Amino acid sequence: MKNYRETKQYLAPVHPPKLSEGEYNIYPAYPIPDGKIFDDLEPLSEIIISRKNIVIDGYAGVFWEDLRNQLSSFFVNKNIEVNWTPSEIFMLAEEDIFSKVFPFLGGDDPVFGRRYTGDLSDFFDHEELSEYRPDDEKVNIVYGVGAALIKSNWPIIYVDLPKNELQFRMRAGTALNIGTTQVINKQQSYKRFYFVDCVVLNHHKAKILPKIEIFIDGQRPDELIWMEGEAFRTVLKEISENGFRPRPWFEPGAWGGQWIKKNIPLLNPDVPNYAWSFELITPENGIMISSDDKLLEFSFDFLMVAAGKNILGDAYERFGIEFPIRFDFLDTFDGGNLSVQCHPRPDYIKEQFGENFTQDETYYILDAEENAKCYLGFQEDIDPVLFREALENSQKNGVAVDIPKFVQVHDSHKHDLFLIPNGTIHGSGKNNMVLEISSTPYIFTFKMYDWLRMDLDGKPRPINIEHAFQNLYFDRKGKKVIDELISKPHTIEKTDSYEILHLPTHQDHFYDVHRLEFDNKIEIATQNKCHVLMLVEGNSMTFISEKGKELRFNYAETIVVPAATNYYTLINHSEKRAKVVKAFVK
After folding, report:
1. Which of 20, 49, 73, 213 is the most exposed, fewest CB within 10 Å of its CB?
2. b or e along 562-573 (b: 16 or more beta carbons within 10 Å of the residue's beta carbon)?
3. Which pLDDT score is estimated for 1?
4. Where are the domains positioned within the chain?
5. How far apart are CA 464 and CA 339, in angstroms?
6. pTM for the whole thing?
7. Helix, coil or strand: residue 241
8. What is residue 196's DSSP assignment?
């Protein structure tokens, strides 16, 4: 199949790539015993025949007719008659579905809507569902999004699709919103996926996870990878008691830089830049597992549904299956400044967008050039009225704004931590490699000024001055910025071989940051908290869980340590002292 995804990013391989020691791996995988992952569809077809009646459910963006055609060839060879029933015939009319989701789409706003409050069954005709009757003389397969709603007591095959591949297919017009027949507008389609489709699909797969008999990784249309559901659930439990690394993915952007291109192998170099690495943005990430030299990926949210309490420990009561901490890279090396922006206050994000907690951030400077800067906090003499007038004049007439007249500009150095609680004006300057340690919400950025530039598609990026001015704290200015928004590290434990530093976050941040600095090895107790780690100085290290699981991690790679791990050991493989950032819920 050609041109089914719009991106320069490579499709994830079936087999793990070969890398030199210490190289960042863009396809990390948690190893499991051999004999658990399959790429042959013939035994899958035999399972279907033996079940007689089965549903094949899955995520939006799956190529259902391709899947049907691949399986049909086996049935034909075996002279098996199959009654195929697509789930879409049970859906409401497109206009009826649209009327249900319209109040959550934010009108003409190109970015923001509101989280849908219903479920997937809202989009189906329940009278039609009740009238479905299988053909007793044939094998019956109901397939497509929501298929398990038609026959909830039948065995379930589930076809998953990573969120990056969903976006790439959506951009190409081959992944459609639930109940639609075409992509009218890519921005509106993405918004509908974010606020409606993904919400209901995630709830749906959470309900059916215990009953999934076969799990399929559907990102490679011609090479479907699968495993048995019981083995899948066993792996989820094992991962939740050990450390693991999500699979990152990467995107160019208007302000993107060259650090990622120069330092991370296996990425396609045929792009102008890389602006982001989605290191740990759990609504977007998958987790890969490997067996018999084959890779299978599943969405992060399956892990939270299956074992959220193991993952979050004490924080589970507050966050449930929503993983609270985000790690991502913002690369401006030889790039441009980020927009001048802020994020919503807690009440605002809940009332306007239906989110359960807000987008509080920090910038940890992984690397920086000598001239790197960070924009953070207001000048002492800030006049909100004059500032807004300058921003609106710029938006209307294309006039540059003298940002340092209103916003403080700070020197940015390797290992600095800038604190950006909600409502704080900020933006990275160029020549930074930022590790953004943040709360998980990630699209709620209110841009006020974007340096008069166009996006990579030649269009202006959305500006959200009205949203921003309903959330800005204008008292975060002058000396208060230095005192409260730039972290002041201090030692909390020290020996000859290691030192643990506290990098305090703001009082509004629900998460905190430590840095572990050690020569040979260090042992850490989780104390019933989930730890998110990154090696920020050094070449590579080995992670050993309480249960003895050993995993090797390299510079700039993100590691999640579940609370249920209890304690773990880090072994340094570098000649110099290793430095590891650790983030956790306070």
Report:
1. 20
2. bbbbbebebbbb
3. 65
4. 40-222, 337-484, 490-585
5. 11
6. 0.96
7. coil
8. I
